[in-house]
User: Which sequence fits this backbone?
């Protein structure tokens, strides 16, 4: 892989070795990573269930979607920062792990979905029900997929 | 029976042995427990934020409570059952772990806080149900809940990294 010298360098950096040697640092990063994921999944559930008409159907979509969308972006920022720091010490082994690869593919798909279809649908109160349902199902599937692949990577690694 | 004897007995039950010895049960339970947590706490936080006057504030407090509760309670149930099973497998190690003790304390705080809101504060909801800025007891309920659950998540992760011995 042409990127492997970068991963090897990353794993040797001072920050990466410090993280690798301290279970407390690793635990702290993992905790904050999970806090970020909680914000993403919770926000995604509230907005996607609203799209599916299963939660707060009497409330205009934009009332729910605007604050909740900010929750997803904030959670994503927290997860990316802490995730990168946990990735650094085991970069060379993680990139070869199938659960990790799956997580990254799903994450990329979820981020693209969030900044395209999700944003487009949440901006208007006049979206037709089929598109709303598609957005709800896609959002739940993608973010749960990221969380599930993350668990699989964490417990089997 | 002392607490130590009780946790040692728990580990010897069928569930305890299964969780410890099966190759698949432990990782599956951990995944269910963590995803259940993200659903329940991640959803609850939007109610807590509403009590603090932010987030989904165009919705009345009582309606948000009514609509979110079934989802929160269902995922709480999943989290408690999977967490209870995980505890059974490693009860002694958990009992001796300082982060686990803080986690239990934070869970008790969260539960009492929820009960006070449900039985006292939430009963006098009529005058402020639709308003953005809520009276102090309601705001406190939201703040205490967010802090307590954050501590639960932090200590829960920390115990996973410290429980099985730093060398392993």
Assistant:
């Amino acid at each position: 892989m042409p990127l492997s010298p970068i991963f090897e360098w990353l794993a040797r950096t001072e920050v990466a070795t410090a993280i690798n040697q301290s279970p407390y640092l690793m635990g702290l990063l993992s905790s904050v990573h999970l806090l970020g994921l909680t914000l993403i999944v919770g926000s995604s559930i509230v907005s996607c269930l609203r799209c599916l008409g299963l939660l707060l159907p009497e409330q205009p979509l934009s009332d729910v979607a605007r604050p909740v969308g900010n929750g997803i972006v904030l959670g994503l920022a927290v997860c990316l920062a802490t995730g990168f720091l946990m990735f650094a010490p085991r970069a060379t082994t993680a990139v070869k792990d199938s659960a990790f690869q799956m997580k990254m593919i799903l994450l990329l798909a979820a981020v693209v979905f969030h900044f395209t279809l999700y944003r487009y649908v949440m901006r208007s109160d006049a979206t037709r029900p089929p598109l709303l349902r598609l957005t709800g199902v896609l959002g739940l599937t993608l973010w749960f997929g990221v969380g599930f692949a993350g668990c699989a990577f964490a417990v089997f690694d | 029976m002392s607490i130590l004897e009780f946790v040692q007995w728990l580990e010897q039950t069928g569930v305890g042995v299964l969780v410890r010895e099966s190759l698949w049960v432990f990782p599956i339970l951990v995944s269910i427990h963590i995803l259940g947590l993200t659903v329940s706490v991640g959803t609850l936080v939007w109610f807590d934020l509403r009590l603090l006057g932010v987030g989904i504030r165009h919705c009345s407090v009582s309606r948000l409570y009514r609509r979110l509760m079934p989802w929160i309670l269902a995922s709480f149930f999943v989290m408690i059952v999977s967490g209870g099973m995980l505890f059974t497998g490693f009860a002694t190690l958990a009992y001796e772990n300082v982060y686990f003790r803080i986690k239990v304390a934070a869970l008790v705080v969260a539960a009492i806080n929820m009960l006070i809101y449900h039985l006292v504060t939430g009963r006098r909801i009529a005058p402020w149900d639709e308003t953005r800025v809520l009276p102090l007891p309601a705001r406190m309920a939201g703040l205490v809940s967010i802090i307590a659950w954050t501590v639960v998540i932090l200590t829960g992760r920390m115990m996973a990294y410290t429980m099985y011995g730093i060398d392993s």
